[in-house]
């Protein structure tokens, strides 16, 4: 279970997250929607430990452990996964080398035995074919020269491989064509599990037709301002964020 | 007492003048060669050791750095050579081993030349006076005006002359192995030539055995003369120099038409390394790739200075040099691409990339283009910066600890050039060198 409690975060002297609270139960898919610049990516970065933010107060509890006390790699090994809004290119690091290093680093941290190369290959190939990722991409440097959509698929492939207990998807739908959106969504859906929670950040209700959420939260002014079921996304599609703009200004 | 002009000769220059006077009679070569030595030495004396005001040596002020000139290496004793035998045998190199001890080619320690290849010592060639080889050995005017090249031409003790017959395909690399038999630091001057006939194909790999080339003062010159449609790959390991040593390596390459030339050099170590490359495209449609990686830490210093001359049309030149600078290391890259009026359709690209790991390092970059043809595509670029914190975070977010993420990115940066090498065994050796350098890194 993920519980974010009264999280206050600023960048420089600008307050971004404002007493932010959310709870996502095991097995639950929670969607967050909200205007540009309201702090959705900031939330996902702070949860995963990116430097550059001042956490003034609050907790991010994953299965009762406060992630904020740990390094980013430790958070990952404890089960947190962030699919980036903009996955990075890493020149010179072969995708396969990277996947092996990441998986084994996590296993080592958890005191599990390392995975052999053949075992890894088997897992990677299975996940890749599910996501329609061509095998030659695995030989290339990580994300280098990949199209926007290919990068997103690669991020989801990593999630499938690392089997986190909680996944954050930051605008995974942006940059995906219609077929890729379906394929990636199926990839995510196949990872849905009674023990795994998701936070899906998106601007478009369309993604939520594929990855059907249990709860939808509206974020404005650095906090959740409204919570509902999946029908809330449909409502937002029609009405926009006008009624929440007051919250933005108040922040 | 009447006023007189006292030439401000440095102690090192004075010693060099004395040395040359003492040894010139015993240096190998015909009377013509002796004359060339005299002329070159006069040119050296006139110019003196290179200093700040010599453009090509702006950053590496040898006049200040080289406090003394070491005594010239003596011919290795038979006992010392005997001692080197098992070390040579133990070298994990594939291909033909050709051993140069303190500047002198030692056939007794070397393998036989493979088919299609003729190997002689420089001393023999200088004495036999084969005019065509002597012309090539003079570098066809490349490096003219450079005092260190002139000093090498005056003092060259020995070296190796490799002739690859036209059409010969040499399957295994020819390894030039630099060794030393001297217990104390000495100076050595060697000049070697690789003359590659038309349509031939060969790989040359330079490396050190023990402290060979890594101690004392080395002034080495390797000249490639490559005929039409030949294919050459070259690697050079200028690694592990000892503190206080000075290694000056001149690399001259002249290419005929439709040649493919590929070179990679790795530089590391506590001594000063200066590598100067003179590349000349004499024939059309040739392709050359020059790569280098310098890995420097502590107060280490390395200078790579390159001059590429396009004298014929439609050639492709790629020059890429990378630096990883840690602690207080200093890197220098100077590169000039010259395109003559007749060298239309030249495609020349030069790039230097430096990774600065601390605030204490210095990278001096000086790229230049000199273009006299109108239909060319030439570019140069230089980047300097630290490791990307964004990339480190991305790797961390996937589970890699900070230090591992950093190491992976450093390795990727340096090894990228190695990945492009054709010969997998050579690439493997170079990767090993890079990894062990990184492994020795003290992470703060
Ligand atoms: N490094 C930074 N320095 C200064 N301001 C920043 C920085 N990163 C983010 N911000 C600001 O913080 C606010 C929240 O940004 P964030 O990226 O979290 O928004 P978002 O909700 O994800 O927006 P979008 O929907 O456009 O992705 C924005 O106003 C942004 O300009
Ligand atoms: Mg965002």
Fold and architecture overview:
The complex is a heterodimer of chains A (251) and B (444). Chain A has helices spanning 40-48, 72-77, 95-109, 117-130, 135-139, 148-162, 178-191, 205-210, 231-239, 245-250; strands spanning 2-11, 14-24, 29-33, 54-62, 65-66, 80-83, 90-94, 141-142, 166-170, 197-201, 215-220, 223-228. By secondary structure, chain A is α/β, with parallel strands linked by helices. In chain A, helix 6 (148-162) runs parallel beside helix 7 (178-191). Chain A is built from 10 helices and 12 strands. Chain A starts with a strand and ends with a helix. The radius of gyration of chain A is 18 Å and the shape is globular. In chain A, strands 6-9-10-3-11-12 form a 6-stranded mixed β-sheet, sandwiched between helices. A 4-stranded antiparallel β-sheet of chain A has the order 2-1-4-5, covered by helices on one side. In chain A, strands 7-8 form a two-stranded antiparallel ribbon. Chain B has helices at 11-23, 31-47, 62-65, 78-90, 122-128, 131-137, 147-155, 389-397, 402-419, 424-439, and strands at 96-101, 104-105, 117-121, 160-164, 174-179, 187-196, 201-208, 217-226, 231-241, 246-255, 260-269, 272-281, 287-296, 301-310, 316-325, 330-339, 347-356, 362-371, 377-385. Chain B is globular and about 70 Å long. Chain B starts with 10 loop residues before the first helix and ends in a 5-residue tail after the last helix. The chains are: A alpha/beta (251), B alpha/beta (444). Chains A and B meet through helix 2, strand 7 and helix 3 of A and helix 8 and helix 9 of B. Bound molecules: adenosine-5'-triphosphate and magnesium ion. Residues 40-41, 85, 170-171 of chain A line the site of magnesium ion (MG). Magnesium ion (MG) binds at residues 40-41, 85, 170-171 of chain A.
